[in-house]
Structure formats: C-alpha cells, structure tokens
Here is the input.
Amino acid sequence: MEAFIDAAYLALTPTAILAIGLGSLVGLVFGSIPGLTFTVALALALPITFAMDPVPAIGLLLGTYIGGMTGGSVSAILLGIPGTPSAAATVLDGYPMTKRGEASIALGTAVIVSVFGGIFSLIVMIVSVDMVSRIAIGFGPAEKFALVLFGLSTICGLCGRSLLKGLISGILGLMIMTIGLDAIDGVSRLTFGTVNMLQGVNMLVAMIGLFAVPFIIEAFSHSGDPAPKHVANVRAQLPPMGLLLKKTWLMLRCSVLGTCIGAIPGTGGAIASFLAYDHAKRFSKDSESFGKGNIDGVIAPETANNAVTGGTLIPLLSLGIPGDPATAIVLAGLMIHGITPGPALFMNYANEVYGMYIAVVIAYVWVLGLQLVGIRLFVHVLKIPRDMLAVIVLVLSVIGAYSIRNSVFDIYTMAVIGVLAYLLVAVRIPTTPIILGMVLGPTLENEFRTGMMLSAGSMDIFLTSPIAMIFFGLAILVIGLQMRSELKSKKKTQQSIEVSDAS
Amino acid sequence: MTDRMQDTVLSILLLLLAGIWIWLVSTTIPGGLGRGDVGPRAFPLTFGIALAILSGLLLLRLFLSRVDAAATEAAARSQIEWLPAILVLLEISLYGFLLQKTGFLIATPVVILLIMLVNLRVHSLKAVIGMSLGVTIGAWAVFEKLLGMYLANGTWINLG
Here is the structure.
C-alpha cells in the first residue's frame, strides 16, 4: 500500500498528467491518420522523454500507445480507411454508420468501449504481471536464454505471408545488434576502426529509421494525392446507457479475447479485432446486418483492440519480452530510464510500476476527454495532405535521431536504415522481426555465454532445466504451427491455380 | 521486374551479404578460449551462417516451386520508387551535414525549402516560406525552449 501511495505521488504530478495528456493527444492524431501509425509517434516521442523523470516519461509513451490504439477508429469510422491495422475491422460497420448519418454515435460508442476494454485489460495485467514475475524470479541464464529464444520464435507471428522472409528479417536484426563493442569481452566487432561504430547501431535510431523513413518516402512518392476533403463535421456522442448495459456481455467477452491475444507475443490488435468482430457476428441474432452498420460491429473490434494494450504489457513487464513494435519502443523507454523489465521488476522498481498502472488509467481519462470534447477540432488533422505531414515527420525524425547522442552520425545511420527498410518492405520482407531481433539479440547472446561459462562449456545447463526445455518446446511449437499454416495456404493457392487452369 | 525475379535477385544479394559477413567476422573477430568461453565471434558467425542458409532456401524454393511463390504474397506487393527513396536519403544526409555546419535554425528551413520545391513541387511562394519558417520556429520553440533539448549549433554559423 505504501508503494502504491508513493507511486500516486509520482504519477499525479502536473508534469506527469500533462505528459500523459500530450502522449494521448499525439497518439490520437498519429493513430487517426492512415499510414502514419502510432509506432512512428512512439519512435519520435521517445527522445523527448530523455529529460523527464521515469514515470512521466513512461506515461507519455503509454499515453501515445493507448491514444494511438483508440485513434485508429476515427478515420475508420469517418473515412472508411483504418488509421491503424487494428482498426481495420471497425471500418466494416463504422463507415456504413457514418454513411447513414450516425457517425457521432459510432465515434462515441467506440471511445467508451475502448476505455472499457483498456481498463479491463489493465486489471488483468495488474494481477498477472506480479504473478508471472514471481514465477520467473528464479530464472537463471539457461532459462532466460530459452525464454528469449521463445520470444524470438514469435517472429513467426509477425512474418506476414512468408516464414522464410520473416526469419531472414529477424536474423538481419540480430546481425545488426552484434555490431559494436561486445558486452562481455569488450572486443570491437565489425566497427572498421571507427569510433562512431563502437557503440553499435543505436536501437532508437534504427527504430526511427525503420518506421518513419518508409512513411516519408511513401508519402513523397504519392505527393499530389488529394487529402480527403469531405470529413464529416461530427462530435462524439455518448451512447445511451441502456445500449451499453445491453452490450456489457459482448464487451466483456471481447475484452477477455483482446487481453488473451495481446498477451501472446507476435499477435497484436489487428488479429484481436478481427477475431472479436467474427465472434460478435457469429453469436449475433442479427448477423445479416453486420457490414451494413451494426453497432456490435464497432463495439466488438474496438473493445478487443484496446484490451490488447494491457495484454501486451504482461509479457513485457514480467518477462521483458515485447510482443509488437510498439511495446518494443516502450521497452526501450523503460531501459533508458533505468527500469529493466523482467522477473525482478517488482523487487527493484515497485513504485515506478504502480506509477505506470496509474498512468494507464490517466491516459484513458485523457483519451476519453480528448475524443468527447476535442474531436471536432482534431478531425481537421485528417484534411492535412500526407506529404505535408511527411515533411514534419522528417524534421521530427532528424531531431529524434540527433538528440539521442547529439551525433550527426546517427542521422546518417537513420537515413540508411530507413531507405533499406523501405526497400525491404517493397520486396515483401517484413521489418517488424528486425526490431524483435534487435531488442532480444543482446540478451540472447549474453545469457547463452554466461550459461556456458557457468557450466564450463557443457550444454547440459540448457538441457537439464525443465523450464528451459518447456520454452524450447514452445518455440518449436510456434515455428511448427506457422510452417503448417504456410504449407496449408500454399496448398490452397496451388489448388485454386489448378482449378483456374482446368477451367 | 516480376516478383519471382525480384526474389531471385534478393536471395542472391542476401547470399552475397552473408558471405561477406562471414568472411569479415572470421577474419576480424577473435574466437573464444574454450572451456565455456564462447567468445565474441560465435554469435555473429552463427547469424551469418543462418542468413546464408535462409537465403539459400529462398533461392532453392524459387527454383523448385512450380507456382510463383511470390504470387501468394501479392497482397503485400508494392513497387520500388527509386527516385523518392534516393532523394530522401540525400536530403536527410544533407540535413545532417548542415546541422553540424550551420545549426538547426538554418539547416531546417533550407532542407524544407528544398523538399517543398524538389519533392513536392509546390510553387506557391507563400506555402513554401510559410512551411519552412513555421516548422522551424515551431520545432525550435517546442524542443529547445519548452523541453530544453539541445538542437545542434553550427560550427560555421551559429544563430543560437
């Protein structure tokens, strides 16, 4: 209780509340603009937090994450274009509602159910993080290595359509992180004698390059495309209490679904929202009206994708495993402020963790307020042409990359990584596994090498630990399942080609 | 270029990268001392070999598969826009160079001006100057004055 009161002191300062509010606003704006994801916002917001205390800093990042997840629904409902992939399912019924002149009620319902899903997942997270941390506290190097290997296997879930290309992307991330001074022996690796390379490729610089630069190139490639001019002039209208009470059971089911999906690394909001949409449709008495403006088609995906936020924080805080790029950036933010997520989190940083819980609640209050009060103003952002936004993103990216170490070398690195990321995406290699490889790579290597030193070179340390074996098994299972699903989809394609050849 | 050809070029380039990586790692990083000391070379070398194997598999899959494997990924297909990509690379590099030499307050409007004229082909003088000065002053006020972040001072010219 004492730790919680101390945390409240940290999280309820005017600076912290304003930082969380700023994050929520930035997240909402970035999340609502199609193509400009909140992951970009997170990467750009991270350098701003350097000068802040840990709780306001992490609060700003969490606010951006939560605001972004909620903001995706704005353009999905008003324009029929999802602001984020996780809002794609909301388009199906949200946009038809706008066409029927019910945009205000759709937006209001979306924000209320988003807050419901988010708070639900926060409660689950509070209970789970402590529990999982207690189990993981006894992990040694062998278990940690196996756990990180399992975390890396979730790259499969982020691979898109080709497991092989996803694995190549993950390996590229792992390779990048070996450049620079070796953490154990202090040997310089692939630095070519330059001082700038000794610290290796900074993860934040790489993240800004990977997420922001491809957006800039894309926007400049299609410069001249008109911005949507007809954005409905709306306000967010609160749904009637009767409707919310009637839909409570659906909201609860979708919250559970979203939280569980979020807790599995490598999944994310898009999967959760489509599963929730499908679930709502399947169990609806009026399933035929789905796709034509059924409010359940807005409630289900919006509840689920916001419930993902708490779910993804469970493996992040308790085990130090980020499930998606957004949480990877939050992880980087935590580490920059001296908070190392993992089993010892509560022992070392109880105040900061409770402070983060309070920050999540404040973020949802901000999101609710901003959406209900400020939506009239901030829908005008949707009218700004993408290429003009890209100019601003370019300046912010350079400021972000430079401010990390006040080094121009980082700006050049960001540019090169960004252009390479653009090329990789164009040849259908997903860039998300690169991030996972970069985040988990150093731990993977350090734990393995420490384990080998402790066992005097015997692999038995990894093979005799039941926990390590469970994680190895899970990693094999994840890869096996992905391979099976890829083979199945390939078989389907082959069959459809044979059918079309025959006809 | 078809998707199949694109994947063939990609896998050959990746194989080449893996080969160079393995050669560099083997010749420049010392190995472990044994008895539990894995050494700093083991992991980069393993990753290089893994990349070589995976790129080889990608190439092999292309040769063996009757169906255009890449066709199954058509949904994610996008064309490479070389000119904007190269321009962005050059502009960010120029921005970095100018930041160091002339500082944030000169480098930013110059680069925005360049982007507006070259990439976006905006001809309205009002829009070009408004955007260049607006973004520069806005960013300077928020980051340097409000948040206390250091935005580069120039070594040739310094406007503070």
Observations:
- Chain B has a mean pLDDT of 87.
- Chain B touches chain A through 76 residues (CB under 8 Å).
- The two ends of chain B are 50 Å apart (CA to CA).
